[in-house]
Amino acid sequence: MEQRIAFRKVTFEDVEIIHKWMNEEHVHPYWNLNISLKAFKDHLAKALADTHQTLYLGLIDGRVMSYWEAYWVEGDIIEKYYSAAQADQGVHLLIGEKAFLGNGYALPLLRAMVHFQFQDEGTDKVIAEPDIRNEKMIHIFQKCGFNPVRPVKLPDKTGLLMFCERETFEKRWPYE
Questions:
Q1: Within its chain, how far is the Cα of 138 from the centroid?
Q2: Which of 173, 26, 43, 46 lies closest to 113 in space, CA to CA?
Q3: Which residue segment(s) compose the domain that 82 sits in?
Q4: How far is CA 164 from CA 102, 123, 131, in A?
Q5: Which of 59, 122, 134, 150 could make a disulfide contact with 6, Cβ separation 3.0–4.6 Å?
Q6: Long-range Cβ contact pairs of 140-144 (< 8 A, separation 24 or more)
Q7: Is residue 84 helix, strand or coil?
Q8: Which residues of the chain fall below pLDDT 50?
Q9: Which parts of the chain span the membrane according to its record (predicted)?
């Protein structure tokens, strides 16, 4: 039986589940947000007010299991690291619920989110900059259609800048 992928926008009421995920062993080395709940509430409030990004929770068959940040590169620190087009978008993600790890969910979820981002007709590129140590996610990004560009030293990590071009994505994953 095929499982249903969905996304819904994060609200401040989601703070406790996202905070819980930020403290998971498989998350905090890459996100560095294993901070107190009070500090995380401040962080999430700022993130929700940031108009260059939209936060989502990913669901499988209605069960909340992942966290997503879909953002416009313009206005983000990453725009300083390459020659960004005005409508380039970026994506950050984490699988929070341990029961969903290692079960093949990351690729279909990422595909669905990137497909959603390419619904903006001006967007020809979606970028990512996963932590360079996160080999599993780098592999998933590559399977989705992202190509490694170069390592980038960001304030909170060394990331691997990766590009997913619309044409490459649509050839790899034709939608009917």
A1: 12
A2: 173
A3: 5-172
A4: 23, 11, 17
A5: 59
A6: 140/106, 140/107, 140/110, 141/110, 143/107, 144/107, 144/110, 144/111, 144/114, 144/169, 144/172, 144/173
A7: coil
A8: none
A9: none
Q: Is 152 exposed, middle or buried (0-12, 13-18, 19+ CB in 10 A)?
A: middle
Q: How many domains does the chain have?
A: 1
Cβ atoms of 169 and 145 within 8 Å: the answer is: yes
CA distance 64 to 84: 32
pLDDT in tens, 44-63: 999 999 999 999 999 999 99
3-state secondary structure of 114: helix
The pLDDT, as a whole number, for residue 2 is 66
